[in-house]
Structures are given as C-alpha cells and as structure tokens.
Specification:
Blueprint: H1 2-8, H2 11-30, H3 35-39, H4 61-72
Transmembrane segments: 6-27
Keywords: Membrane, Transmembrane, Transmembrane helix
C-alpha cells in the first residue's frame, strides 16, 4: 500500500491525475454537442465550454436570434 501512495503523490502522479481529470471534464462537457445533428435538426455548432452563448457577446441577443432564424428556419436546435 505504501508503494501506491508513494506513486500517487509524486510530481508525475499529480500531473497524470490532473491530466486525466481535465480530459474527463472536457470529454463529458462536449459529448452531447452533436445531439441535434443526430436528430437531423439544424443547429448552431457549439464551442467547447461556452456552447452557442459566446455569440451573444459580439452582437445583441435579438440580432443573433434573427440571424439564426434566417439561416436555419423557424425550428432549430
């Protein structure tokens, strides 16, 4: 048991743990980004961590929705 604790709390063990945790976080947060594509619904391709909300920082919300309405039609995901 002492050997396992000695391996985990080394700098390499900490880096490997943090890398695995970061990978799992990114994978889990982006695994559902293709939900609308699988269903055949037109959609705005989301960006990692922010989704499609980041566009609202560049233009007002109503302009984004109008642009999406003209691009994708009345029903989009």
């Amino acid at each position: 048991m002492e050997g396992l604790w000695g391996l985990i709390f080394t700098p390499l063990g900490v880096v490997l743990f943090l890398g695995a945790a970061l990978f799992l976080f990114i994978w889990n947060s982006s695994k559902s980004h293709d939900c609308w594509e699988k269903l055949g619904v037109p959609y705005v391709k989301p960006k990692p961590f922010f989704g499609s909300v980041l566009d609202n920082t560049k233009r007002p919300f109503h302009e984004n929705e109008l642009l999406r309405y003209k691009t994708f039609g009345p029903i989009y995901g």
